[in-house]
Amino acid sequence: MGQERLAVDFDAFERAGWRGRSEAYERGMAPLTTHLVEPLLDAARVESGTRVLDVGCGPGGVSAAALARGAHVTAADAEPEMVAATARRLPEVRVHHAILPVLPFADGEFDAVVGNLVINHVGEPPAAVRELRRVVRPGGRVALTSWFYPKMRATVVFDEAVAAVGVPRPADVPATSPFQPYGHPETFTALLTDAGLTGARTEIVEWRHDVDPDAWWTAVLTGTARTAAVIARQNPATLERVRAAYLDLLTPYRTPDGRVSLPAAALLSSATS
After folding, report:
1. Which of 135, 137, 153, 221 would staple 263 via disulfide (CB 3.0–4.6 Å)?
2. pLDDT tens digits, residue range 176-219?
3. Where do the Methyltransferase type domain residues begin and end (predicted)?
4. How far apart are CA 154 and CA 47, in angstroms?
5. Which residues neighbour 235 within 8 Å (Cβ) at sequence distance 6 or greater?
6. What is d(CA 168, CA 149) in angstroms, rounded to the nearest whole number?
7. Could you give the residue ranges of the DSSP H alpha helices within 49-184?
8. What parts of the chain have a pLDDT lower than 70?
């Protein structure tokens, strides 16, 4: 299978996998990603009057924060339900249905483009970054985040639980994202530089995700695509074994109040057009 076919298959899986998950994502996963919103906007230098595009807007968390800074916000997402959710929540925002690497905007239309945890959900990351550069004016900013798995525990415990039980991955579920080769500071920086952006830099952002274990299990199984596709398809007995392994893996992170404090980490990469 060539790289082009791999990209097509990954994109097709993503479109099908995220369908119908907008509300579950907003309830369960968005609280994990919120920590990145302000650093992302800072890296893109979003302030009052900035024309900013929030690509992969999801339910609108980044767009709302940009509006609060006085920015002129346009948003786009590949999932129609996410588009509708942002449009309902933020009537001041122009919201478009668009799938990277093709955006319905003019060259240089924006002062800044931000994407919170979207570059790891596209089939062709280099083409996607080139498209982001196209829609940013000369001297404008691009800022993107992606999970940094070497330090990420909040979601990785689910993969480890699946591995501990020996659950086989379904043939139609991608084993990894095409972004994986770029998932380190040096390679993420190079991805932006190779797209023609200048002054690229990548930092690691770390925080703790404090959550109820049962609520987090539900959040990931209902509000993600790849992880949910592997776990939720299992028969009841296997599902219980995976859940038991998950709870065991949480032991080092338990807090006295019965919750867990899970390490989370992401890469924040930014550059100038």
Report:
1. 153
2. 889 999 999 999 999 999 999 999 999 999 999 999 999 999 99
3. 53-143
4. 31
5. none
6. 21
7. 61-68, 80-89, 125-134, 156-165
8. 1-8
Residue 56 and residue 15: Cα distance in Å, rounded? 12
Element at 73 (helix H, strand E):
strand 72-77
Taking each helix axis from N to C end, the angle separating 236-249 and 213-223, rounded to the nearest 10 degrees, works out to 130
CA 251 to chain centre: 27
* Number of residues written out for the chain: 273
Distant-in-sequence, close-in-space partners of 54: CB < 8 Å, separation ≥ 6: 60, 62, 63, 66, 73, 74, 75, 76, 93, 114, 115, 116
Q: What is the dihedral of CA 35, 36, 39, 41, to 10 degrees?
A: -120
Q: How many Å apart are CA 226 and CA 78, to the nearest integer?
A: 16
Q: List the one residue out of 55, 51, 57 whose CA is nearest residue 89.
A: 57
Which residue from 177, 161, 183 is spatially nearest to 226, judged by alpha carbons? 177
Structure-block tokens of residue 169: 């991955």
How far is Cα 236 from Cα 99, in angstroms, rounded to an integer?
36
CA distance 134 to 92: 24
Q: Token pair of 207, please?
A: 């925080």
C-alpha–C-alpha distance, residues 58 and 175, integer Å? 23
Distance CA 54, CA 84 (A): 15
Of the candidates 153, 126, 167, 123, which has an alpha carbon nearest to the alpha carbon of residue 12?
A: 123
Contact in structure between 127 and 68 (CB atoms under 8 Å) = no
- Find the helix or strand (DSSP H, E) in which 9 lies: helix 3-18
CA-based radius of gyration for the chain: 18
- Token pair of 147 as six digits: 């999970």
